[in-house]
Write a structure and sequence with these properties.
The chain is α+β, with helices and mostly antiparallel strands and about 190 residues long. It contains five helices and 13 strands. GO terms for molecular function: ATP binding; kinase activity.
């Protein structure tokens, strides 16, 4: 664990403002934080984007981070499968679509082909579709085991996107660790 300025770390995912607000409340109430996880070479945030944004908004200059070597095989990029419970309206919407986007990289989402030229924009198209479905009354959840399978992401792609200053949609990546990272809050 090392204390770093959270502004020096590089996010690879966008955040949900309500989750940032929840993280702010948690930090204020407990005066502690579960340290975000960052790559020791690139300072790319691997886990803890909402906590990072919370402490930045609270003007913290140094907070604890767990530093890990992202290049090691002990860190795996997993997937968040999508589970959809449709409303009548969202079901009609899906049945009216055949294809979203253009490009050679495609994934199936129920009866729809979501396509793009790269994995970054493909994930944003998937996010767009999920938001439309939620707006039509569907429930879209992330599941670690089953559901609609998103495209594979590599560490290299995550690093490339983060270094360009872009961000994947919230909760795109799911990192798994073949070592123990303490789940302890650290006083601030």
């Amino acid at each position: 664990m090392e204390y770093l300025d959270p502004r020096d770390t590089i996010p690879h995912e966008d955040v949900v403002l309500n989750k940032v607000k929840d993280a702010i409340i948690s930090v204020k109430e407990t005066k502690s934080i579960m340290p975000p996880i960052v790559d020791l070479r690139t300072l790319i945030v691997i886990d803890g984007h909402h906590r990072r944004e919370a402490v930045i908004s609270m003007n913290f200059r140094k907070i604890p981070f767990y530093l890990v070597d992202y290049s090691k095989d002990e860190i795996i990029v997993g997937k968040w499968f999508r589970k959809v419970l449709h409303s009548k309206l969202s079901s009609l919407f899906v049945s009216s679509l055949k294809r979203v986007g253009d490009g050679d990289l495609c994934m199936r989402f129920q009866s729809i082909s979501i396509c793009s030229r790269n994995v970054y924009s493909l994930y944003w198209r998937l996010e767009w579709l999920e938001e439309r479905l939620r707006g039509l009354g569907a429930k879209v959840d992330r599941d670690p085991v089953s559901g609609e399978e998103p495209p594979e992401l590599t560490k290299a792609e995550i690093i490339r996107v983060a270094k360009t200053g872009l961000r994947f949609p919230p909760k795109t990546t799911r990192h798994l660790y073949n070592f123990i990272i303490p789940k302890l809050r650290v006083k601030l």
